[in-house]
Design brief:
- The chain is of the alpha/beta class and about 140 residues long.
- The protein has a single domain, classed as Rossmann fold (3-Layer(aba) Sandwich).
- Helix content is about 55%, strand content about 10%.
- It contains 7 helices and 5 strands, in the order E-H-H-E-H-H-E-H-H-E-H-E.
- The protein has a 5-stranded parallel beta sheet.
- Helix 3 packs antiparallel against helix 4 and helix 5 packs across helix 6.
């Protein structure tokens, strides 16, 4: 059963030079309860394609193919888009707009009743009703 939606900065931890031990422990023990959002998949793919050809890019491509592809990728559908629009308008009115992709990710988490796991809790805090955790 899915419980968590992983943000890009969490799912990228295993590829870091010094990954967070607590994030690595959580990923090792509850990966089957985790998913990623389509915008996170986009960010990972885009980031990989921006790397120069070489060993690092090859390693990231292998990680995306072998590990990330094992997570369910949740779509940005009509319900998430509606919630995102409502929250985006509310936050704009308050003078605290959220980056578009972060809003998409937050809406996908909330529509699927998942806890969003991110190293950047503060960026997602304004999104009303969103459960957020930082495993680092």
């Amino acid at each position: 059963m899915l419980r968590y939606l992983l943000d890009t900065n969490v799912v990228s931890q295993p590829m870091m030079k010094a990954p967070s031990p607590s994030v690595m422990r959580k990923l090792a023990t509850i990966a089957d309860e985790c998913a990623i959002a389509a915008p996170v998949w986009h960010e990972l793919q885009f980031g990989c394609r921006c790397l120069p050809a070489g060993k690092r890019r090859d390693a990231v491509q292998a990680y995306l193919a072998d590990v990330i592809n094992t997570f369910e990728i949740l779509p940005y559908d009509d319900l998430a888009a509606k919630l995102h629009a409502i929250e985006q308008a509310r936050l704009r009115e308050l003078g605290t707009p959220m980056p578009f992709a972060d809003g998409q990710i937050a809406a996908i988490a909330q529509m699927n009743e998942l806890v969003l796991v991110t190293d950047n809790v503060r960026a997602f805090a304004p999104f009303k009703g969103l459960a957020v955790e930082n495993w680092a």
